Amino acid sequence: MEGENLPPASSSGVSSASTASSAVNASRNIRPRLTPGWRFGVYFIAFAGLLWLNVWAYLGRFDYYVLGIIMMMGINTILATSLNLINGFAGQFAIGHAGFMAIGAYTAALLTMHARVSFALALVLGGLAAGAVGLFIGIPTLRLRGDYLAIATLGLGEIIRVIIVNLPITGGAFGLSGILPYTTFFWVEGAVILTLVVLSNFIRSSHGRALLAVREDEFAAEAVGVPTTYYKVLAFVMGSFFAGVAGGLFAHYLLFIDPSQFGIIRSIDILIMVVLGGLGSLSGSVVAAIVLTALPEYLRGFAEYRMVAYSALLILIMLVRPAGLFGRVEIWELLNRGRPCSRPGAGPGAGPGPGPGPGSTGPGPEPRTKAESGMKPGLEPAGRQEVTG
Amino acid sequence: MAVQPEPPLLEVESLTMAFGGLVAVSQFNLRLERGELVALIGPNGAGKTTVFNCLTGVYTPTAGSIRLRGRNIVGWPPHRVARAGVARTFQNIRLFRDLEVLDNVRIAAHLRQQATLAEAILRLPRFRREERRLAAEAYELLELVGLSHRAHQLAKTLPYGEQRRLEIARALATHPVLLLLDEPAAGMNPQETDTLTGLIDLIRDRFGLTILLIEHDMRLVMRIAPRILVLDYGQTIAEGSPEQIRTDPRVIQAYLGEEAVG
Ligand SMILES: Nc1ncnc2c1ncn2[C@@H]1O[C@H](COP(=O)(O)OP(=O)(O)OP(=O)(O)O)[C@@H](O)[C@H]1O
Ligand SMILES: [Mg+2]
Q1: Domains: count for chain B
Q2: How many angstroms does the Cα of residue B51 sit away from the middle of ligand 1?
Q3: Cys-Cys with A82: which of A14, A193, A239, B119 at CB 3.0–4.6 Å?
Q4: Do B261 and B181 fall within a single domain?
Q5: Residue range(s) defining the domain that contains residue B54
Q6: For residues B221 and B250, what is the distance between their CA atoms, to the nearest angstrom?
């Protein structure tokens, strides 16, 4: 069995844990579906909550501060879910999401300020600008295996900062002020819904499954005809696009932007939302974005310790639930009577459900977590790349 | 129009693959007619898997040509080779372990998908139709390999033998003309091997497949392969019917030598 000439799959080896008893456990291994009662409950609560939010926002009942937090929750939701597309679903480790946000923010702001472009168009153009830069970076780096993308995206943030500081039109390091206050609750809400619909429809299609295949095993994906580079670039460009849109919303909400707002700290903030929520779980990203936007506001007094707290939180999560809060599972899958045990990869000891019988799969022998698979695509430069150049 | 003689399905000429100083495959020739089943055997490290990797575009050969239905596919990336009709299984099972069994197969049907990304995002009729069709096809293939009851399990939870069959179903979902099986019976007990033998016969009939099979299980090879090729240290040392191979002194030497060494 040794001597296969390919680098090991991201999780190598054959599940030795699978035995005859897995037939017994077959029913448990089936992916949970939300029971009708639960589904109704979840939809009802979500719908009622949204309705309330909308009515309140419409009537102007939120005070300015609270409304601001709600809008930031939405903007962060877009940022986190779009980064999750790259890191969680496509399994490519990008870390400079704030850079793309900056491109969208400056592009959209300058367009509405100086070119009298409508807000909607400015948001789209901001997204397209970010997507174009994503394409430019993605094509060379994503063809290679390994962590080149992480390095490139990290460098990108710095490059963008330098460009912004030196361009005459951006206000340089002093920042850009006088941006028009276009961003409202409803703009954010619309953008969030659009983002979620696009991303989840993408993921739940054969194109999205191709993306998952790339994450799982690039060689196997290629072998069944998936053009892996194409899909990696596609995910990266789409993620960049939505980050750009989020940047445009951000600029027209804050009305003043400067390069320091799009630094490494913000990139890490977004990354933490993705990791906490679970790489590969859109709903996890939404929840994490909401919680991690609200939390610092409640903990204002500890602002200086935020990064310390985040680091501690991250370490804790890594220890307790390495796959993130929700693993790669969507929330409604967890809601099924608290029995997420069907997906052993979701997290070690996932769920209090009836423990899998002896010798069954349970939390696999090496519960490959989303986090690991996201951070380490685990593939060495392939022979083909070297040979064909 | 003059009737052209149909080129062989696969024609490999003087295929050589060197890794630095190590020549893993040397001057390998192979001609496969449509519908043939040929076995590739040889001791460990003989270069069998390397041949597969060259055929599927994972490696670009150092020298030689590979023609699939007359077209030279050397230098094509693997996904393009797959789209041209070459599917494979892996010696070390490489499933999409954390995805459902059904999705493992559906992903492989991806290359026949017509609906664009925009259609998928907008959930347009053609996309929905296609999704239904691909899912139905995938179920059918799972049924064929006896795994339909596992459809919604994660691939990694399957027992070993079933994982191997799932790999075959996944390969079939690409609608190949040429199927490359790399030690499909490895690690199987005799009963599982029998099931597998039946399955290989079945899919060959059903899909009119041409199959190139690497296998160490001689019983299996002798039973289903009318023609056998033997590799040793990258060289083709024998080619012929099971009877010829069984009695070929060089083959016996190669295998005995291996046993003597360990
Ligand atoms: N990418 C590579 N780089 C260097 N050497 C390689 C590479 N791939 C294969 N080899 C070498 O080529 C030789 C043939 O390997 P190959 O895997 O093709 O053998 P095999 O016939 O499939 O053996 P087995 O029966 O053990 O699977 C071996 O010596 C192997 O170490
Ligand atoms: Mg081999």
Answers
A1: 2
A2: 9
A3: A239
A4: yes
A5: 7-85+176-262
A6: 18
pLDDT reported for residue A250: 98
**Which ligand lies nearest the alpha carbon of B44?**
1
- ipTM given for this complex: 0.92
The residue whose C-alpha atom lies closest to atom 8 belonging to ligand 1 is A5
A161 or B29, higher pLDDT:
B29
User: End of a domain among B175, B203, B236?
Assistant: B175
Whether the CB of A228 is below 8 Å from some CB of chain B: the reply is yes
| Of A179, A156, A155, nearest in space to A107 by CA | A179
The partner residue sitting opposite B120, judged by closest CB among A6, A207, A388, is A207
Give the pocket of ligand 1 (CB within 6 Å): A 3, 5, 383; B 19, 22, 24, 42, 44-50, 91
Chain B window 54-93: which residues touch A at a Cβ cutoff of 8 Å?
56-60, 75, 77-80, 82-83, 87-88, 90-93
B24 & B101 share domain: no
The answer to whether residues B47 and B104 belong to one domain is: no
Report the CATH number at residue B42.
3.40.50.300
pTM for the full predicted model: 0.84
Q: Among A159-163, A188-192, A381-385, name the one with the lowest average pLDDT.
A: A381-385
Question: B70 and B191: one domain?
Answer: yes
* Distance separating alpha carbons of residues A354 and A336, to the nearest angstrom: 13
